Amino acid sequence: MPTPRFIIDTDTASDDAVAIMMALQWPDVEVEAITVVFGNVPVEQGSVNARFTVELCGKDVPVYTGAARGLLRKPTFAHWFHGPDGMGDMQYPAPQRPPAEGHAVDELIRRFAAAPGEITLITLGPLTNIALALLREPRLAEWVKECYVMGGAACTVGNVTPAAEFNIWCDPEAAQIVFHSGMKILMVGWEHCRDAANLDDDERAMVYSFDTELARFTIDCNRTATQANQSLFGEPGLPFPDPITVAIALDPAVCTQRSMHYVDVSCSDITRGMTVVDQLGVTGRSFHALTSSAMAVEGNDAGGNEPNVEVCWAIDVARWKETLYRTIR
Ligand code: RIB
Ligand code: CA
Q1: Do 35 and 103 form a contact (C-beta atoms < 8 A)?
Q2: Contact 77 CB / ligand 1 (< 6 Å)
Q3: What CATH number was assigned to the domain covering residues 5-328?
Q4: pLDDT band at 305 (very low <50, low <70, confident <90, very high)
Q5: I need a labelling partner for 186 at 20 to 30 A (CA). Which of 141, 149, 224, 309 fits?
Q6: Among residues of the chain, what percentage have pLDDT more than 70?
Q7: What does the alpha-carbon distance between residue 95 and residue 19 come to, in Å, rounded to a whole number?
Q8: Under 8 Å CB-to-CB from 280, ≥6 apart: which residues?
């Protein structure tokens, strides 16, 4: 069995950092590159946070800088959730290494072209880098072995608007391009990163009791996120969307229910960034054929609205948390 190969695209703030750490610490996998995109924080800060995390884990994975804004939209950062530096304002030291030479989009194309069908892509932020790479080189969709997307909200509420999850909301046009590119995608929505999936007070205390540098990092850099989750969302505990997505990429059995559906992304008005998931398969039925021109999107003009994205509908919470603990004990 060849060693699983990963490339991670991230808007590195505190939950991304824990997700990156999990992948770097997981036995017998190779994280070959990290590409950074704007999102939680400006892309330059995301690069600093990613490089700090790589060095904290004692690795030397190259970190490439990507898009600083959306395809059509200016960035809206999430300092309100992750803190001014995105890392709980922990005042971590600056990373030793500079960003890797080259733009993230060029590097994504180059690396996947060199190993078609062999590398798994994990996206933890807005999909701008991926969309730009697809516009430059549409064959990227075939070259990516599979793509785990942290993003969206399948038939449920959003976290940044009533309709949309943050990563998709930041650049809905990019998400629409990626979701209709033909790439093999598993969408992990934020709905799986709430309630019991969060780390509660006891679990955070237990992690701290592991008494390792990475365990302390996991909790410390997410102190703002923990407070914000309570004060802004009124929800208990520490939500970990990116670590859950990486957990599924590392141990696919963490996702206990998944199925293919037609998924489109709204780019307008109050539903901007909404992932419209056809859970019942109605868009493929004949009575929609008459309206398919209204439903069809660029690159999907067959009007058939064939299922294009695999959607995660449930996770094994205990298994997800064990995946995290295994990497920081
Ligand atoms: O909505 C949650 C997502 O938005 C996570 O990836 C978090 O890091 C932010 O990017
Ligand atoms: Ca993220």
Answers
A1: no
A2: no
A3: 3.90.245.10
A4: confident
A5: 224
A6: 94
A7: 18
A8: none
For 75-123, write each residue's pLDDT tens digit.
999 999 999 999 999 999 999 999 999 999 999 999 999 999 999 999 9
Neighbours of ion ligand 2 (CB under 5 A): 11, 16, 124-125, 242
Please list, residue by residue across 250-261, b when 16 or more beta carbons sit within 10 angstroms of its beta carbon and e when fewer do.
Answer: bbeebbeebeeb
Beta strand residue intervals within 267-329, DSSP E: 275-277, 309-315
Ligand 2 centroid, distance to 287 Cα (angstroms): 39
Residue type present at position 244: I
In tens, the pLDDT along 221-262 reads 999 999 999 998 899 999 999 999 999 999 999 999 999 999
User: How far lies 153's CA from each of 103, 122, 162, 203, 269, in Å?
Assistant: 30, 17, 10, 26, 17
151 CA → ligand 2 middle, Å: 9
DSSP state of 236: -
Could you tell me the distance, in angstroms and rounded to a whole number, from the CA of residue 166 to the centre of ligand 2? 9
**Residue 269 confidence class, pLDDT cut points 50, 70, 90:** confident
9, 124, 168, 224: which to mutate for ligand 1, most atoms within 8 A of CB? 124
Angle formed at CA 241 by CA 235 and CA 242, multiple of 5 degrees? 150
In the prediction, which pLDDT does 297 show?
Answer: 47
